[in-house]
Amino acid sequence: MKKYTSLISVIILVLTFFWSYSDLTPSRSINKVNSNTEFSIENALTHLKVISKEPHYTGSPNHIIVQNYIVNELKKMGLNPKIQQQVVVNDKWRTSTNVANIIASIKGTEIGKSLVLLSHYDSRHHSSFGASDAGSGVVTILEGVRAFLAKNKKPKNDIHIVFTDAEEIGLLGAQAFVNHSPLANNIGLVINYEARGSGGPSYMLMETNGKNSQLLTEFIKAKPNYPAANSLMYSIYKTLPNDTDLTIFREYGDINGLNFAFIGDHFDYHTEQDSFERLDIETLLHQADYFTTTLNYFAYSDLSNLNSEIDQVYTNFPFITLLHFPFSLILPLLIFSIIIFIFLLFIGIKSSRMSLKSIAIGFIPFLISLVTCLIVSFLTWKLLVLLHPNYNDILHGFTYNGYQYIVAFSFLTLWVLFKIYNPFFVKHKGLDLLVAPLFFWIVINVLFFMYLKGAAYFIVPVYFALIALSFLIFLRDNISLKVVLTTFLSIPLVYMFGPQLRMFPVGLGLSNLFVTGFFIVLIFGLLVPVFTSIKLNKLYVRITGLCSLLFFLLASFNSDYNENNRKPNSIVFINDVDKNESYWASYDHVLDDFTLQFFEDYIVQDNLNDKASNSKYNNSYKHYNKTDNRVIKPSNIVKVRDSVSEDLRYITLIIKPQRSISKISLYSDEPLSFENIGIQNVFINKVDELKSIKNIFTYYYTPYDDHLKIDLVINKEIKPSLKITETSFDLLSNTLFEIKPRAEYMMAMPFVVNDAIITKQKINL
To answer: Which DSSP string do the residues of 513-545 spell out, in sequence order?
Structure first.
């Protein structure tokens, strides 16, 4: 009986693990539309196929096509969409463009705070089709609003549909709306739809300058069917360089918001593989579920009081929408857990049910496991990158075989745990071995209370482990009953933390696989009584090791590129106007058949950073080679003003492009301080940000621009020498070049300037 009980316990834990994943997203089978008033995934996909047909970044010809399509679809619903055209300068990054937001409104029956449904309709420069990011958000809103209006029921609150422009180049459309639209003065809540991949569950992230209690309460009242959220995710999200439009609403307008974003299949993010065909339908259904439930609730609820004086800890939990409790309970829960822990230790040792010596010895395998698993995970990934140097060119940090690596590393961690713990399982009771990991969990919760309160839901498994510990102490002889009770008390632990084994390496990159190892050690520690009852033999250990090896081999077998998983590479042509010289440059670590045509006798230099265009991950060129010069027409630059007033010098430049360019950047080799900078008659607000800067600004051209006007205000003693780079994404189609095209298994590298012609010239002022 004991043998079968142990086996059943393992099966229950495995099933719970898969349950925790299946509970996060809907299945395709739920998409049964019975009336015109329901969300139709087919309608949404029809929109998406049109929107994601071609790259449609800000300033591109297809951008206007997508804009017109969205406007026409809104008109078909009986709405009256407007284009908000506005030049905007981001004070932080000093990026700028002439944005064109699409705005439509549904009038409510009462006077109160309004609701904003938000997504952006521009794709990432220059090759992304933008199906997920953020075509998925656009079509979710389009189809969701159509279904909502088909009910012929007036909302209580005004609803504003806002499709922002230029999100991908600095959240500029959101800034234009918040700073310049009168509609922004009366917003109670913003619901934003985003993507950082092409699949997986959509996570809810809150944006608020205050406390989250009321916002969370209202979200739960909306009754989403598949809420995926925990308070740790937002704590981590705030530390990453991945702001969304919703951030602008919070920072500039002090407006609360809900962010629904998915991160699975992160390797598609910002690439040409962000396509209609690769978007996960279940993910789109998840976004649709969020949309229909939240719209049907917030369209009629009071949006004037979403601020709160209380913060909540929250997490997914079995059979409960979201388990949550206020920050004020963190310390009492922590103190009470410590008291119970000490009390149970005292009872267990006094009753001779526990051995003080075994408890002390129990710290040995746990600490060795923790250190060993972290080191093994970290070094193994370093070794894999050495064996597969092409992984360095996947700037997302998540390879196509990344999910296989997650499984392989998970089994590897389990194998290490089994190898370390197996001798201790033979000589010591699970009751004694549970103390060390439980003590560590309590210590972690103390640290979370001090430094990261969003992770305080880690206290929940501690209480279930304490209950299990009490059963192990007080139930003396019924071993099978102990195993069963311990197993069922472990279900919340596996359910809560199982999905996070995948979430962190997907979101943070495979170089952070050691985080998965850390979680597995923590989870394993609290499951020690279950594993002790199994009496692991060499067969179990070998099976775990074999599974790890098989998945490593599978990942290695799938490490090559193909038409479905394309190899990223990069090439730009740089023309130095002043020197009358031209160069090829690439960000690639490993050259391939495409890039080798430019670098037959390449050189690698250490001083290329000044020639590299800005990129998200601060990448610099890895290969740089002089080539035959091609004359690329630079812009005409005319100084129309140069005057001095008191201690300040005022300079106005007019830049007139002589070719079709996408962006222009002004920078200096040496740090300069400006009193102010104006772009197209729009001046920067935060002048303190203009002290000692090298990257002065970047402007993205649009069809609305004929020329670029620059106003510089500096100290009269400064005689700056500036540089201008002009970039166009027409390298592969330009008749000045004969370039062998990429093979079918290749694509343009994301996050960097690519397939571009860049001109450089100096301006001495």
So the answer is: HHHHHHHHHHHHHHTHHHHHHHT--HHHHHHHH
Q: Residue 689: its pLDDT value, please?
A: 84
Per-residue tokens: 44: 């949404």
Provide the 10 A C-beta neighbour count for residue 561: 18
Q: How many CB atoms lie within 10 A of CB 544?
A: 21
Strands (E), 495-633: 567-569, 572-576, 581-586, 623-627
Cβ–Cβ under 8 Å, residues 399 and 510: yes
How far are the Cα atoms of 86, 188, 602 from residue 287, in angstroms, in the given order?
30, 21, 48
Q: Extract the tokens encoding 740.
A: 């062998």
CA 51 – CA 273 distance, rounded (Å):
15
Orientation of helix 330-350 relative to helix 356-387, angle to 10°: 130
Q: What is the pLDDT of residue 534?
A: 64
Give 88's strand partners. 97
| β pairing state of 257-264 and 187-195 | parallel
Per-run averaged pLDDT (10 residues), the chain, 765 residues: 72 92 83 82 97 96 97 97 96 92 97 96 95 97 97 96 96 97 96 96 91 94 95 76 85 94 95 96 96 97 92 93 94 97 95 93 96 96 94 93 97 94 88 96 96 94 96 82 88 94 91 94 93 69 92 95 95 93 91 91 53 60 89 91 92 94 93 93 88 92 93 91 94 94 96 94 91
Instruction: Write the DSSP symbol of residue 133.
Output: I
CB 104 within 8 A of CB 181: no
| pTM confidence score | 0.94
Q: Given this model, what pLDDT does residue 321 score?
A: 83
> What is the rounded CA–CA span in Å between residue 170 and residue 97?
10
CATH of 35-310, one of 3.40.50.300, 3.40.50.2300, 3.40.630.10, 3.30.2350.10: 3.40.630.10
The pairing of beta strand 159-164 with beta strand 648-656: unpaired
Identity of the amino acid at 103: I
Q: Which residues contact 97 (CB under 8 A, 6 or more apart)?
A: 58, 59, 87, 88, 166, 169, 172, 699, 700, 701, 702
d(CA 222, CA 301): 10
239 by Cβ neighbours in 10 Å (0-12 / 13-18 / 19+) ranks as exposed
Phi, psi of 97 (to 5 degrees): -165, 175
Whole-angstrom distance, CA of residue 211 vs CA of residue 207 = 10
- Number of other CB atoms surrounding residue 82 within 10 Å: 14
Give the residue from 312, 340, 316, 339 showing the smallest Cα distance to 328: 312
| CA gap 46, 291 in Å, rounded | 18
The reported pLDDT for the residue numbered 612 is 47
Kindly list the domain boundaries of the chain, sorted by start residue. Answer: 2-20+330-557, 35-310, 567-765
- Dist CA 716 CA 585 (whole Å): 38
pLDDT, residue 2, reads 57
